[in-house]
Write a structure and sequence with these properties.
- The chain is of the alpha+beta class.
- The chain is 39% helix and 19% strand.
- It is built from 16 helices and 14 strands.
- The strands form 3 sheets. Strands 3-4-8-5-7-6 form a 6-stranded mixed sheet, with helices on both faces.
- Helix 9 crosses helix 15 and helix 11 packs across helix 15.
- The longest helix is centred in the first third of the chain and has 17 residues.
- The protein is globular and about 65 Å long.
Length: 478
Amino acid sequence: MRIASAIGVLTVVAVTRSGAQATATTPTLGPPPMLTVPGVEHSALANGLRIELVPMHELPLAQATLVIDGGARLDGTKPGIASFTAGMLDEGAGMRDAFAFASELEYLGATLQTDATWDAVTLTLRAPTHTIARAMTLLADAVLRPRFSTVDVTRQRDLRLAAILQERDDPQTLAERVFRRNAYPAGHPYHFALGGDSTTVAGFDSTTIRAFWTSIADPRHATLIVTGDLTLSQARALAQGALAEWRPPPRGVAVPKVRSVTAPVPAPMRFVLVDRPDAEQSMIVIGTPAPMRSSADYAAFTLVDILLGGSFSARLNDILREQKGWVYHARSYLEWRPVPGPFFVVAPTRTDVTDSALAVLVREIGRMGAEPVPEIELARARAYVAIGASRKLETTGQVADRLVALHAFGFPIDTVSSELDAIGRVSASDVQAAAGRHLDPAHLTVVVVGDVTRIQPGIEALGLGPIEVQEIEAPAGR
């Protein structure tokens, strides 16, 4: 499967030593490399745990990633609890405290990373093939016998609270947090940041964390993704030896359910300002809920992102950084999720040109749906996606990451090829139509973190929408 590139040839005029003019041409960008999608082998244990294997025998290494469905979408009234609980899984388990647990991993040449996304809790184990079986016993302890000691939970809770407090000094993190709470209504899983807020995190204790883990740690809702120098029988033996005794939550335990939610109806354009007195920069975040991954606009909107701000040579960075010199970078971020996730633009700019930068950002966002994209620009974006796809399936970790990402949507691995084919067929009119449907400039949420006394008059003069000044912490109930 190839995506043809249509990059034109640029003619350059040079002067030789004799004074005569000679022409030189830059090389024409050739087609992207062939994308080879690996095959996936399947098995399962009697307790319902699914096993997926991608054999990769080039190196004597293996990775086992346990994916437990749910993640932060199960937080409910305790924002941040999935992320916090995942981070506690390797803070002591079985007969080992946190230090002994880490020492044993190091002795085996292994690493274990525990994490939570919006859609899953993951435990990622990497080890040489000859120690992977012993290392799997540590993963099993983390899943089946986590300690969640009061001392460890208290220490990690204090660290989390300190990190949330430090976010006030990071304008981008702060702006994104304020954006989420304004773009998504209260009660929506994306209203809060993945790590929660200080109010909810302060209430986490050992009992709360243990109860949450007991309710979601269910082998029937889990998949063990194995990549590396193993056969399917070996991978199944690893799972059987480590996780065969894993059982569903005991009868009577309240099991949280993943709610099916839709995107909020985009509100009229509004500006939310967060005051940072004497700031020399303003952090701008502009966005809206994106289409769902299963949307017919997936391929076209992927290119909308790449063209607008998803690559270094994209429009926003070219105008605001290369032409104007107002920003160090201007990027767009597209978060595909099973329910409509956010699409937003981030641009830190000088305080004195905040209003000018905002005018450019809104104009360029609107232009995506108002004008067709030049074919040479579209071809470059297609090639960018195709080349990137090939580079993301090279290592055991990259293949596992791709499988984990697809798992959230219930998609098979060959979805990578079919989606790439679809992107290769996207026309300029497709891009324009998708942008028109999902990027209406009249329905954007704009957050600006900066010196309000200096930036508000200029933003008001733009006349683009109402302005509200909010505190860093959300008022009660928001």
